[in-house]
Design brief:
alpha+beta, 2 domains, 2 helices, 25% helix
Length: 106
């Protein structure tokens, strides 16, 4: 929910009060967004097949991956999704959730 959606229909006694509330809501919204985008320790990552960003420490960049088994008899592990193929990953230290999809198609 955006700050505009949060404040829609709200009544304020004056413009100064409204501006102060809007500033606080926007600051809280931005802080929440930034917290959601922080890298988290890999030990806290979901292991249910959810696609997430994974930080490859040895490569120094993020990739899209998930905890999964590539074959039915394989033990699960971290895998990279790359152009329709799967590649086992190692030296993963952190993860991030994917951003929300666009609200409206372009």
């Amino acid at each position: 929910m955006t700050p505009d959606e949060i404040l829609k229909g709200a009544c304020f006694p004056d413009a100064e009060t409204r501006a102060a509330v809007v500033a606080r809501v926007e600051a809280a919204y931005q802080a929440g967004y930034e917290a959601a985008r922080e890298w988290r320790p890999i030990e806290t990552a979901p292991k249910d097949g959810t696609r997430i960003y994974l930080w490859l420490a040895d490569e120094g960049f993020p990739v899209l991956g998930a905890w999964m088994s590539h074959e039915p008899d394989d033990d699960p592990d971290w895998y990279l999704f790359e152009m329709g193929t799967y590649r086992w990953l190692h030296d993963i230290t952190h993860w991030q959730p994917l951003p929300a999809p666009p609200k409206e198609p372009t």
